[in-house]
Amino acid sequence: MRLLTVLTTLIVTALLAAPLHAAPGRWSFIGPDGGTVCGLAASPSQPNVVYAGLERGGVFRSMDGGASWAFAGYGLEYASPCSLSVDAVRPSTVWLSGGNRLFRSADGGASWKSVAPPLAQYDSVAAVKADPHRASVAYIVINKIATAGKLLRTTNGGATWALVTKAPAGVRTLAIDPGKPNVVYAGALGLFRSTNSGAFQLLRSTATFYVTALVIDPRSSSDLYITALGRFLRSTNRGVSWAPAQGLQYATDLAVSQRLPAFVYAATGSAGIWRSPDGGRSWQPTGPGMYDPLATHVLAPAGSVVAGSASGVFASFNRGASWRSGRGLAGSVITSLAITRQAPQQIYAADLFAGVQRTDDGGASWQRQGPQGLIYDYGVNPIAVAPSDPDTVYLATDQGFFRSVTGGREWDRLPAMECLEPSSLAVDPVDPATLYLGGFPSCGIQGDESCALFKSTDAGTHWSCLAGDLPFPHSGALTGLDPFDRNHLYTNRGDDFYQSPDGGASWQLLSHGISPIDLAVSAARRGLLYAALDHGVGRSIDGGATWTVHAGGLPAQPLLRRIAADPTAPSVVYTADFKTVYRSTDGGLTWKPLGTGLSAVSIDDLKLDPTDPSVVYVTTRETGIRRLSTR
C-alpha cells in the first residue's frame, strides 16, 4: 500500500471538550462521533461507568451507561486499548493491556502509568482481569511464541508480580469466578480452568478454533458462556457439559446482564446485537436504532446494554428494544471531506466504516447517509460535491464509484476503476457531470490497466483514460483544475509536471523535477500554483513552468501530504504532514505550525471554508474532523 494509505497507531492527546466554534488558534472536534471499538469494560460497583477502547483514538469513558463519552486516554501513546478491566472494589482503578504493554489508571482514566510485568523478548500481554472481590489484585496472561504462556498475579496494584501457573498457548480471553476468586478460566484452543493456583485443566476442546469470548454469570458462577469460530456454547455446571444455542448462528462477543437474571447478549459481527432471556437457550435480534449492524463487542452493565462496532458505540436502555448512538466518541476514521459553496455549514465526510456522513449545521449534528458498509478501503476515498449543485455528491473508492443526486440520501453504485487506487477527484465548476479521477494503478503497467488519470462526461457512468501522450502512464496522478479556465488541467507523471489546455485531450510538459503529492491552484491570482512536495513546498507564478521550493519553518524531512491556498489572498497558503498543519502568509517562503490541540494524529485531508477561508478543516484517521479559525 502506498504511503498515503499507511495507518498510524498513534493515540490521540487532543481535548474533546472544545466548543463547536473554537477560539482562534485552537483545533476543535466537530464530529462525526464514532470509532472502531476493540474493547469494552464496566465497573461492577458503578455500572453507569463504562470504558471503550478504540483501535485508533485511545480510551473513552462514559458516566451515563454509554449515552455520552469523553476522552480518557492521556498518557497511552503507542498502546492498543483492546483489553480493559475495572477494579470492582476501587472503580477508579482501570487496567489496560495492549501488545507488550500494560497500563494502570488510578483516577478513572484521567491519567495512565505504565506497569512493567516481567516480559521476555517477543512476549505479549494477552489479557488483563481485575479480581472481582479484592482491591489491587489483578491477573494477566503472558503469551509466548508457540509455547505455553504464564498466568501472573499482582496483589499490590502492579508493583510486583508472582507466577500463578503456566498458561495454555495462545490465550485470547480470561475470566475469574465471581464466587471463587482463586478459580481462573482461560480461553485458547479450548476452555481451560485453574483452581487454587493449580495447573490449567482442559474443560472443552474447540479443535483448531480459538475461544474469542468467555463470560460467567455474575449471580451464578456455574453458568458459563463461550464462543469459538462464532459458535455459541453454554454450560450450567461449570464446564462439565455444554449445549449449543437455538437461533444464534454466529457471535463474536458475549455479555451477561448484571441486573436481569438469565439475560445474555451476543454481538454477531454482522447482524447487530441478539438477546436471550433464558440463559442462552433461545435467541432473537434486538430492536432498531443501530446504524451499523457490524457489532463486534457487547457489555451489559446494570442500567444499559452497550454495543461496540466498527463505527462507534451504541447504547440501549430498554433491554435492546431500541438503540442510540453514543455522543462524544471522537475516534472516527475520516479520509476526506467536501464543503458546499452554497451552504458552507453543509459538509460531507467519507467515513471509512460508517459510509458518507453529512452535517447541515457545521458539525453540531451528523446524519449517516450511506453507502454504509461499502467503503472499507484504507485509501484516501476522495469525496467531492459539485460546485454548481450541492445535492450532487461523488465518492471514489477502489471497490466502486458512488454517485448521489439527492444530497446523500440515495446512492448509485457505478463500476470501479478495478486497477486504480483513487487519490484525487475533481468536478467541473460549471458542468457537474464532468469529472476527473486520478490515482495509483494497482494491476500492472500494460494497456488501460496502467492508466492513472480518467475523465467522465456522464457523471461517472463511463470513463476514458487521459494518458494520451503522457509518459509513465503507470505512475500515480493527481488532478488540478484551473479556476480561471475550466478546460485547463494540471497533472504529474513521475518527476514531470504537465498541463492540458483542452480538458485532457492533449498534454504539454511544463517542468521537470516537480512531482507534487498534492496541488493547489490559486483562485486569487492567475498562474499561481502551490505544490506539496516530499522536501518542502513548491511555488510557481507562471502556471507551473518554473518553481521555487521553500521549507523555512518546516521539519527537516516534512513528508507533506496536503496543501490548500486561500482563494482570496494569494500569499496565504496551508500545508500538512501526518501530524501538523502549517501556515504561510508570505507565499510559502516561511512556515509556522497552526494552532494547538492537534497532536499525534494522522491527517488525510485539508480544506478551507469556501466562503470564509480563515476557517480550516482537517480530517484524521483517529479523531474525526477538526476545525480551526485563524481570526
What does this structure look like?
The chain is mainly β and about 625 residues long. It has a domain at about 35-325: YVTN repeat-like/Quinoprotein amine dehydrogenase (Methylamine Dehydrogenase, Chain H), CATH 2.130.10.10. It is about 0% helix and about 45% strand.
Concise account of the structure shown:
With 631 residues, the chain is mainly β. The protein contains no helices and 58 strands. The strands form 15 sheets. A 4-stranded antiparallel β-sheet has the order 1-58-57-56, with no helix packed on it. It has a 4-stranded antiparallel β-sheet with strand order 3-4-5-6, with no helix packed on it.
Key structural traits:
single chain, about 625 residues, mainly beta, 4-stranded antiparallel sheet, 58 strands
Helix-strand blueprint:
Elements: E1 28-31, E2 34-35, E3 37-42, E4 50-54, E5 58-62, E6 70-71, E7 83-86, E8 94-98, E9 101-105, E10 113-115, E11 124-130, E12 138-144, E13 147-154, E14 162-167, E15 173-176, E16 183-188, E17 190-195, E18 201-204, E19 211-216, E20 224-228, E21 231-235, E22 243-244, E23 253-256, E24 264-267, E25 273-276, E26 284-285, E27 295-299, E28 305-309, E29 312-316, E30 324-325, E31 330-331, E32 334-339, E33 347-351, E34 355-359, E35 367-370, E36 383-386, E37 389-397, E38 400-404, E39 412-414, E40 420-427, E41 435-441, E42 453-456, E43 464-465, E44 480-482, E45 485-493, E46 496-500, E47 508-512, E48 518-521, E49 529-533, E50 536-540, E51 548-550, E52 562-565, E53 573-576, E54 581-584, E55 592-593, E56 603-608, E57 615-620, E58 625-629
Parallel strand pairs: 2-31
Antiparallel strand pairs: 1-58, 3-4, 4-5, 5-6, 7-8, 8-9, 9-10, 11-12, 12-13, 13-14, 15-16, 16-17, 17-18, 19-20, 20-21, 21-22, 23-24, 24-25, 25-26, 27-28, 28-29, 29-30, 32-33, 33-34, 34-35, 36-37, 37-38, 38-39, 40-41, 41-42, 42-43, 44-45, 45-46, 46-47, 48-49, 49-50, 50-51, 52-53, 53-54, 54-55, ...
